[in-house]
Write a structure and sequence with these properties.
The structure is a homodimer. Chain A is an alpha+beta fold. The first copy, chain A, has helices at about 5-10, 15-25, 35-45, 50-60, 100-115; strands spanning about 65-70, 75-80, 85-90, 95-100, 120-130. Chain A has a 3-stranded mixed beta sheet with strand order 4-3-5, with helices on one face. In chain A, strands 1-2 form a two-stranded antiparallel ribbon. The longest helix of chain A has 13 residues, at about 50-60. The interface of A and B includes residues 73, 99, 101 and 115 of A. Chain A binds a DNA duplex (25 and 25 nucleotides) through helix 2 and helix 4.
Chain lengths: ~150, ~150
DNA sequence: CTTCTTGCAAATCATTTGCAGGGCG
DNA sequence: CGCCCTGCAAATGATTTGCAAGAAG
């Protein structure tokens, strides 16, 4: 029961919050926009206002449950926080893949140190062409959050 | 005479474009928002509309003269394209520093390859605290583009 | 001259906020 | 039952676009 996750975060376990959390969990592999979450809820016949989605996602972000990204297209995408990792994004189909590399991690740390920075977080995104057969070469509607593919 | 840079890019050498290019060059070390460029022009008694700034910056981007970034705060910052490099950003004062690291570069290439991606570009940003004496601990007005410091 | 540009105001888009009614603890 | 939460509509802020008047080649 994920009501606990919410309580732990100091949030009442309300229906909208549970539903939104559910959507995020069912789409662990994806990175959804607020609209994307909205769409999926509508499709599931859940009647939740878009404003609420934004509010809840921000609360989740503050609670550390979710991470908000601003990739190159400017608008925000959300994903459950599942530990540190970086992203590979296909510029043709929008497919997003995750990866983690110790060596790069290390290097970042020492580079920040060299500049006297106390590093708190980072963002590394590799953009390219995923070259897969089913790369549909059509970027998903930014509003849809339909970022799955491949 | 930078009129040439413009002509080469297929753009007429108009006053607004020259002035904007000038601002970008005088602030090579910085990363300005459209508003930031606007402010500086106003301060120089140049009467150029904000819409024009946006239009020109986009044209410059298309022409490859300028790079548009979307750091974590969501709104766009521009800088002259001076070859590949990554960024270190102080979350307290907004200071932005640039760096370049071959090892990370290499690693990125091989990671993309491993995933079958044809890499075309990347973004690496390290966020932290610059810890300098003059870190004013006050983020610059996002609209100002006053990103210099330290 | 003809076409590319600009300035201004109006239009969009994503996201945020105010407020009155509802629901969790 | 009180305070936190939601929905809706209106407010915002950044960026874009339409259009008529102006310059560049």
């Amino acid at each position: 029961m994920q009501s606990n996750d919410l309580r732990k975060a100091g949030l009442k376990a309300t229906l909208p919050r549970l539903k939104i959390l559910e959507v995020l969990q069912h789409n662990r592999a994806d990175h959804l926009s607020a609209e994307g979450v909205y769409r999926r809820l509508i499709d599931s016949n859940e009647d939740i206002g878009l404003a609420t989605i934004y509010r809840v996602l921000s609360q989740f972000e503050d609670a550390g449950l979710v991470i908000r990204h601003h990739f190159e297209d400017g608008h925000a995408l959300f994903e459950l926080d599942q530990g540190p990792h970086d992203h590979l994004i296909c510029m043709k189909c929008g497919h997003i893949e995750e990866f983690f590399d110790d060596e790069i991690q290390e290097r970042q740390k020492s580079l920040a140190e060299k500049s006297g920075f106390d590093l708190s977080k980072h963002t590394l995104v590799l953009y390219g062409d995923c070259q897969t057969a089913n790369c549909e070469n059509n970027m998903p509607d930014h509003t849809t959050g339909k970022t799955t593919n491949k």
